[in-house]
Amino acid sequence: MNILLLFIVLLPILAGVSVPLLRFKKRSAREVFVISAVTLNSLLVLLLLISRPQGVFTLVRFDGSLTISLRFDGLSSIFGGLVAVLWPLASVYAFEYIKHEGNDDRFFALYTATYGITLGIAFSANFISLYLFYELLTLVTVPLVMHSGDNRSIRAGLKYLGYSIGGAASALMGLAILYNLGNESLEFVYGGYPVSSFVNRELVRAGYLLAFFGFGVKAAIFPFHGWLPSAGVAPTPVTALLHAVAVVKAGVFAIMRVTFYGFDLNVIRGSYAQDVAMAFAAFTIVFGSAMALREQHIKRRLAYSTVSNLSYIIFGVTLMTPAGLSAALSHMLFHGVMKITLFFCAGAVMYRAHKEYLPEMHGIGRKMPVTFGAFTVGSMALVGIPLLPGFLSKWGLAEAAIASGGVLPTIGVAALLISAMLTAAYLFTPVVNAFFREPGDDLAAVSDPNAYMKAPLIILCAMMLILGMGSSGLLGLLERVANCEF
Q1: Partners of 126 in the β-ladder
Q2: Chain centroid, CA 346 distance in Å
C-alpha cells in the first residue's frame, strides 16, 4: 500500500500536465476529465486513510541519509483528508467561475497539479521532502495568482513570489541548523530531535525561530502577511484554495511539523523562542481582525480574516502541548471549511453581480438568497456561534491556553475574545446590510449562480452543521493525533 502514497501525489500532477496536451474541443470534456481525476484521487486518499499503511516509500536517495520520501502518519492524515474533501468541490465551482477568465487549459493544468503537490506536503516523510514540495507549491501557484495577466495580478504574483523566496531562505537556514544538530536525515521525530547536554541551547532556539518565521510567511504571520490580501486579485477558485486549503494551510502544517517533530521541545518550551513565537501569533490574531473590519473590498476583508485565523492555529501550536496541537488541528480543519464557503460566496457575488465592495451589495441577499444564506452560515461558524464548528475549535484553543497558564497564554485568550468581537462586526454587518437594506436598481437582474456554484455552497453548509453538532469522534481522533497515538 505504500506505493499508493506516490500514486496520489503523481495522479493529479500528471492529470494537470495532460490538460493542455489533450486539447479538448469541448469544455464539458475537459470538465469530465478534471473532475474524474480529482474525485478518483480523493477516493484513493480516503482508501489511504482507512488502510493506514506503515513504513516509508522512498523516491530518491541522496548521498548520506537524506531522501525524498513519503509516509503516512496521524498529522499527515488530517491535512491530507482536508485537502481531499475540499478539492473536488473547488474544482466543480471553478468550472463555472473560470468561464469568464480565459486560458482555461492553463488554469486547470496548474489547478489540478497543485492538488498533487499539496498532498506531497501532507505525506512527506521528512523535512527535505516537505521543503521540496513546499517550494514546488510556490512555483505552481504563482502563475495562478497571475492568471488574469493584468498589472495588478502580475504585481500580486511577484509580491507573493518575493515573500515566499524570503520565507524559504529562512526556513532552509533553520533546517540546516537542525541537520547540524545531529538530525542528518531530517526525519520527523515526535517531541523534536533530542539534543545532548553539550549542544548550545541558543542555537536550537535560533534555528527554531528561523524555521518558524520562514514557514510562517505562507501562514501570513505578521509582519509577513502582506502578500495574502494582495493575492486576492486572483480568480476566486484560486484565492479560496490559497486562503482555505493549500498554501496557507501548508504554512501552518509546516509550523506544526517544525514545532512538534523538528527541534527539541524540551529546549524550546519555556524559552524566549516559545515566547516570541506565541507573542507574534497573539498579535496577528487581533491585527488581522482589526484590518478586516477596516477593509471594504469583500475579498480583501476575507483575506485579513484569514490572516487572523491562521494565527489562531499557530497560537495553539505555540502552546507546545498536546491539547494546544489538538485544538490547532481542529481549527485548521474547521477554518478550511468555513473560509472556503465565504470565499465561494464572495466569488458568486463578483461573478453574478460584478460587485466587489461591500457598500455596493446592500440588499443583495434578497437577490441571491442561497449565496448569502451560505455566507450567513459561514459567518456564524467563523464567529464561533455554538452548534457550529468555529465554536468548538475556539473553545478548545481557549481551554488549552488556560491549562498552560502563564502571562502569554492568558494574553492569547484575550486576543481570541477581542478577535471574536471584531469578527462578528466585520462579518455580520455585511449580512445585515445584504438582507435588510433595499437593493439598488443595478441589482434588479441579479440572481444566484447556477448549480456548479450553488451545489458546493449547499454541501459546505451541510458539512458545517454536521461538524458543529456531530464531531465528538473527530475531536477524539485529533487528540490521539496530537499525542502521536494514531
Answers
A1: 187
A2: 18
Number of C-beta neighbours around residue 354 at 10 A: 11
Any idea which residue has 534555528 for its cell?
207
Q: CA nearest 213: which of 264, 283, 276?
A: 276
Cα distance between residue 171 and residue 34, in whole Å: 34
Residues 6+ apart with CB under 8 A from 67: 56, 58, 59, 60, 61, 125, 126, 128, 129, 185
CB 201 within 8 A of CB 168: no
Say if residues 265 and 194 touch (Cβ distance below 8 Å).
no
Q: How many whole angstroms separate alpha carbon 112 and alpha carbon 145?
A: 15
- What string of pLDDT tens digits covers the 486 residues of the chain? 678 899 999 999 999 999 999 888 888 899 999 999 999 999 999 999 998 888 888 888 887 788 999 999 999 999 999 999 999 999 999 998 888 777 888 999 999 999 999 999 999 999 999 999 999 999 999 999 998 888 988 999 999 999 999 999 999 999 999 999 988 889 999 999 998 777 788 999 999 999 999 999 999 999 999 999 998 888 888 888 777 788 899 999 999 999 999 999 999 999 999 999 999 999 999 999 999 999 999 999 999 999 999 999 999 999 999 999 999 999 999 999 999 999 999 999 998 888 889 988 899 999 999 999 999 999 999 999 999 999 999 999 999 999 998 999 999 999 999 999 999 999 999 999 999 888 888 888 888 899 899 999 999 999 999 999 988 889 999 999 999 888
Q: Give the whole-angstrom CA distance, residue 171 versus residue 138.
A: 14
Neighbours of 182 (CB within 10 A): 11
Give the Cα separation of 86 and 84 in Å (integer). Answer: 6
DSSP string, 201-269: HHHHHHHHHHHHHHHHTTTT-TTS-THHHHGGGS-HHHHHHHHHTSHHHHHHHHHHHHHHHTB-HHHHT
Instruction: Record the pTM.
Output: 0.94
- 282: helix, strand or coil: helix
What are the sequence ranges of the domains in the chain? 270-486
